[in-house]
Amino acid sequence: MTNTHLKDLKGIVTGLFLENELMSKHTSYGVGGPVKAFIIPKDRLDLINILKFSNNHSIETHFIGSGSNILFSDNEIDGIVISPLKSLRNFSISNNTIIAESGVMLGKMVKESIKNELTGLESLIGVPGTLGGALSMNAGAYGSEISNHLISVKMMSMDGKIKGYAKNQLKFSYRNSNFKSNEFILEAKFVLESDSIENIKARSKENSSSRKENQPLRYRSAGSVFKNSSQYTAGYLIDNAGLKGLKSGDAQISTKHANFIINHGKAKATDILKLIKIIKQKVFDKYKILLELEIKTLGFKPNDIEKINV
Ligand SMILES: Cc1cc2nc3c(=O)[nH]c(=O)nc-3n(C[C@H](O)[C@H](O)[C@H](O)COP(=O)(O)OP(=O)(O)OC[C@H]3O[C@@H](n4cnc5c(N)ncnc54)[C@H](O)[C@@H]3O)c2cc1C
What we know:
Structural class: alpha+beta
CATH topology of the largest domain: Uridine Diphospho-n-acetylenolpyruvylglucosamine Reductase, domain 3
Oligomer: single chain
Number of strands: 20
Order of helices and strands: HEEHEEEEEHEHEEEEEEEEHHEEEHEH
Number of domains: 3
Radius of gyration: 20 Å
Helix content: 25-40%
Largest sheet: 5 strands, antiparallel
Bound molecules: flavin-adenine dinucleotide
Number of helices: 8
Distance between the termini: 37 Å
Shape: globular
């Protein structure tokens, strides 16, 4: 990305534009090197202009929500990162229908649905992140996934046009979706079912307590690092490979939940990556199971992540 492109782009953005911004400031891991610009568009018009500009000038463009499921590399990314956080957050509930923009926090959606005696989202209580990130990841917990009650999604393509997708035009599976990486998730519509507030609150309380009991919530992390295999949970495999508590720099495999890697403060992406590689190798050696990452990675070379000696 040339300096001229950076300057011209800065000139058209009406929202937040942070030059040479460290992604460590925008991820729950607290890890990540600089990007040429981190941008939070002010509104849809701002987003249209940013996407068109970056499309016309072939600028490397990435989308994130609150960065609670991403490991950014320590290296510079020669492009821009766009987030709707604290900006695109229109939200409405009418009867059983919720319409929310991608910058709405999942926690708000859960709280509002409970308040309105609607069931379907309460098991996601405590999952950090935005609606956009949750849809992209098909976030889920305690047997329920964000896509379960989804009706439709609006996306913005790089030419600034808005496209609508009904749920049956999309594919969701365990922590996975098939949204195109060059389309920005703008808004989604859900229809939930009614239930008594006592029932809904009881379920959300149970899930919330279980989360507090089993997860290292006092530390910075990105939640579960690996997907569960079809036979065993990733946490079980990592624990039984004797890896709980293993450290690399300021990164550590949590002693509370083996599928969490925590940052004690000064961890680098390379520290976390080292633990990821050790986990993959040791679990493979012991169980012949190749764990697949649940977290997304950005700014690495393919070999940085995939290469283990199998
Ligand atoms: C303590 C902790 C507990 C967690 N527990 C759970 C859990 O129980 N279940 C679970 O599923 N996850 C869990 N997570 C992971 C994470 O919170 C979820 O995946 C969350 O939905 C990610 O949202 P985000 O906004 O932070 O997305 P990000 O991490 O910012 O992004 C995730 C992905 O979504 C894409 N994306 C984000 N926004 C957009 C957009 N507007 N348009 C297009 N693409 C977009 C990004 O490119 C990236 O690929 C946990 C994380 C932590 C830190």
